[in-house]
Amino acid sequence: MFIPLNTDAPLYHFPWMTITLIVINVFCFAATGCADPVRLEPWLLEYGNGLNPLEWIPAAFAHAGFMHLIGNMFFLWGFGIIVEGKLGWRRFLALYLGLVVVWGLGVDLLTLHRTDAYVLESEFGVESVEELTDQLIAEAPDDAEIPDEETMQIFAEELLRYMKGRCLGASGVIYGLMAIALVWAPRNEIHLIGWFFIRPMSFEITIMTFSLWYIGINVLGVIISGFQMGSSGLHMIGAVAGFAAGTVYLKRGWVDCENWDLFAVLAGTYGRFGDKDWALGAHAETDRHYGDIPVPEGATEDVPPRPEKPAKALRHIAEMIDAGDHMGASDALIELRLSDSRSLLDHQRLKRFAIGLLKASAWDEAEIALDEYLERFPDDAGWARVRAAQILLTIRHQPHAARAMLRQVRKSQLNAQLVQLAKKISAEAKQQIVSGVKDAQPEW
């Protein structure tokens, strides 16, 4: 088995809740006496007893043994950091518990048919526990010491309960996280470690490849089992729930995958390919992107090499922005864009980056960041238009352009402070225009 340890997917939040959930699972394992059968009994989700919501959460936090726990916790870490890294701990916890509920509900619904009568008939060919007791006594070897009938009936009832089926473990929910990671970051990689026979191995693989491999194995397991509720079935309930949740979050705009999601990848519109102007000029070929531009002969040594891990470089830039090093982040981003034009900051971080550059009076860099924000997020760009108008008026000396920029702003997009600033810029620009000031020509 190969277990995930890390990822190069952009992570914007520290995985506090993933760590907390791992601790809670370990605590629950200790609370069950490290999988003591008697103490574990109340934690099980039993089949064929109708809908039992009180069983769903305990079953998702209990484990049948030490290796069961360890394997699940490694996978919870590997995929939890990806999902929580995009949502933050509060939203991640809500999503995780939601997956627990949907998983438990799915298990109960798909096992409603496994009633006492159904199992007695299908597994033993009898109609009652009494008949099963008689059958067990009759089938006992002649030289066996047979307990009294009451003891045999208790044994028959326990046997019936066991044959009806029950489950426990976090793996169903973890498969849900795996499916979400598949939807949100299919082309990012995860770092795996494991053993092939006795040889230790360490390598990186895309989330799409890893997830589809495991999900595919479980689909095959469901088919081979005749669609019975075994481990593969439990995993697939979580995977289906996770895929649905990941898709809803993506389509509703509750998560920003920066156009690197599964649907964009499958459609070939991921990253910069999703921009309407990604081709260079009206005569550019429709299948050419910036990395494919032919380099003039003899100039190849001036072209910076393409980073092997653009996502890692982008994550480092994001960390610089979070630390307040906006000028350093600007230089690093320009260097990255020269070799990988598809690397884009997320919505909130780009905004924080632009504001940081404005506060540092880095007008050229701030103007570039504002222009990108206006292009990528026009529906939430009122603040950016006001700041861009401020630069056009006070730095570029272009009052007409500043007024034109402000005409695109809706008052509902601005807070009180920005409304006052917009009014001030508009009034000053109007005064300059009335005084005969013409827009300065841009410096190329």
Rough outline: elongated
Task: Round the mean pLDDT to the nearest integer and report it.
Answer: 86
Helix content: 55-70%
Quaternary form: single chain
Helices and strands, in order, run as: EHHEHHHHHHEHEEHHHHHHHHHH
Gyration radius, to the nearest Å?
Answer: 30 Å
Instruction: Report the biggest beta sheet as strand number plus sense, adding barrel if it closes.
Output: 3 strands, antiparallel
* CATH level 3 topology of the domain at 2-114 and 165-251: Rhomboid-like fold
CATH architecture tag of the domain at 2-114 and 165-251: Up-down Bundle
Molecular structure report:
The strands form 2 sheets. Strands 1-4-5 form a 3-stranded antiparallel sheet. A two-stranded antiparallel ribbon has the order 2-3. Helix 3 packs across helix 5, helix 4 crosses helix 5 and helix 16 runs antiparallel to helix 17. It is elongated. With 444 residues, it is mainly α. Among the domains are: 200 residues, Rhomboid-like fold, CATH 1.20.1540.10; 64 residues. The protein starts with a strand and ends in a 10-residue tail after the last helix. It is built from 19 helices and 5 strands.
